Amino acid sequence: MAPLLLKEGFYSEDFIQNKKELLDVNAIDSKYPGLLGLIESSFRKFKTLALTVLLAPITLLYVICMGLSLTPGLTFYQYVDGWTEGAHMIVRNASLGMAIATCFFSYGLTLIFVVPLFNKLLPLKVKPLRATWYSLSVVPWYYHNALTYLVRYTFLDFITPTPLNKLFYQMMGMKIGKNSIINTSNISDPCLIEIGDNVTIGGSATLVAHYGMKGFLIIDRLIIQDGATIGLKASLFGDVVIGKGAMVKPHDVIMPKTRIPDREEKKEAA
Predict the structure, then answer these.
(1) pLDDT digits (tens, 9 = 90+) for 119-153
(2) One domain, residues 190 and 244
(3) Does 46 lie in the same domain as 79?
(4) Same domain membership, residue 80 and residue 152
């Protein structure tokens, strides 16, 4: 019997359970030929060291993105520093204090454009997949979210839920319809999240297009259709579809594989 193939090369859960050799969570040998196979096999054999080496360039990415984003603010600070050099101490300190504050907001507003640019330039693209955590195919996922979190944890809360946070997520690959409000920064995997028109995402809701299970990382799309409402602090995972006009109550947890029908409250898939 041929396997039931899902989108992007997925295998059905039943088929994988019956044919465990297709995807062994403890496998050391790689499915890739040549150099890639050697790298992935080493990755799985020396997990901690290999993961550190593969993700080390993220530090360099952070330095470049943050450095470029700080440049306009630091330039302004140096101008104010020179301009107030002979001023009274109180005037000088007040001016420099406001220059530092300006530098911070200048940094954040620049960062929301610089990070998506580097995300776009990276040759690593995130796709739906099911793989072990120690696979080369998950490396793009690490990088995409690392860049997202740089903005999320240093500035994004200051511009949520203004149009600027929507603009940032759109530049990171999220599809967002017209008149939708996103009142949260608790978002991972924006490139695999689709939000329709007139959608409301409540404060501190969590949207992630992935989940972990039995040693595997599963990445799949999260789709919220037109007119849906996601309540305060609700949590939604990958492989979830919220129907048109549907309501997810505050604090609800919508588990993977859930399909909420149009204009109805949550109803988990069997």
Answers:
(1) 999 988 899 999 888 888 899 999 999 999 999 99
(2) yes
(3) yes
(4) yes
Which pair of tokens denotes residue 168?
């940032």
Are residue 249 and residue 208 in the same domain, yes or no?
A: yes
DSSP 266: -
Question: 238: domain range?
Answer: 160-270
Range with lowest mean pLDDT among 44-53, 146-155, 208-217: 44-53
Record the pTM: 0.84
Q: Are residues 143 and 37 in the same domain?
A: yes
Concatenated DSSP letters of 154-184? HTGGGGTTSHHHHHHHHHTT-EE-TT-EE--
Question: Do 146 and 182 belong together in one domain?
Answer: no
For the chain, give percent helix, strand, coil, nearest 5.
45, 15, 35
CA angle at 121 for the pair 158 and 134, rounded to the nearest 5°:
90
The region, left, alpha or beta by phi > 0 then psi within -120 to 50, assigned to residue 263 is left
- Edge-to-edge strands, sheet with 216-219: 129-132, 216-219, 210-213
- Structural tokens at position 237: 């995972």
User: Residues 194, 195, 201, CA angle at the centre, nearest 5°?
Assistant: 130
User: Taking a C-beta distance cutoff of 8 angstroms, is the pair 152, 185 a contact?
Assistant: yes
Number of domains in the chain: 2
Note whether residue 21 is domain-resident: no
The SS3 call for residue 59 is helix
Radius of gyration of the CA atoms of the chain, in A: 22
Residue whose C-alpha is closest to residue 242's, from 220, 226, 219: 226
Do residues 250 and 233 touch, judged by C-beta distance below 8 A?
yes
